[in-house]
Amino acid sequence: MAANKSLLLLPGDGIGPEVMSQVKRVIEWMDRRRAVRFEISEDLVGGAAIDAHGVPLADATLEKALVVDAVLFGAVGGPKWDNLDFKIKPERGLLRLRKDLGLFANLRPAICFEALADASTLKREVVEGLDILILREVQRLSQEDGVNLSGIKRILELELAERRSRQLLAEMHAEVSQLRAQLESTRAVAARLAGMIRSRPDAAELVPVHHFSRSGHPESAHGITGEPGQTAAAVDLGSPPSAAGNAAGTG
Length: 251
Known about the structure:
The protein has two domains: 1-103, Rossmann fold, CATH 3.40.50; 106-136 and 166-251, no CATH class. The chain is 49% helix and 16% strand. The chain contains ten helices and seven strands. Strands 4-5-7-6 form a four-stranded mixed β-sheet.
């Protein structure tokens, strides 16, 4: 079977190669058991690219990223490269990918599977049922980029670009929230119908649709982190400020 999609794997540094090895297992499973095949290529980014090429992202690697259907990225950075000049630190490879690929959104799903509810540091009644998706703007420019700007025109250009990014993120938030609401409604309908069919094979009544509420406010992040399982089914957090996005996304 011909490949359906092309993927570029960029394992990077640290835990990146370990995670990417499991990604490859999933891809191989999809190739064997599903009607989809992937054309896979792999390259270096971050510290691994610095060691091999002297830069955190080679031009040839970026060219590959621009033509494939998707880039699977691991992680970059580590103590080995901490003392390098900021302009060639591993993280600059990630920033260049984001900028040149026009990336603007970071989607952070958080799901608690039933079998793992007791493994959480939170009590089961707090974390059970967790299913949220946090959308936040990705950082494409470093503080150094801002310091080195020359002229008010360049500053205005950057501000307009960031405004456009926020607009795109808001549009994605609305679209993703709608898709998640439809998915949740489908799950609810399927569960209700399954129950009715077991008790009443001739049941044909309409099933109420579940609706989501969304918020982009920092207070919602704090509310979610307080009782994630209670708010998970009802709240999507979109386009939060960085501090709130980090707190909700990694806390």
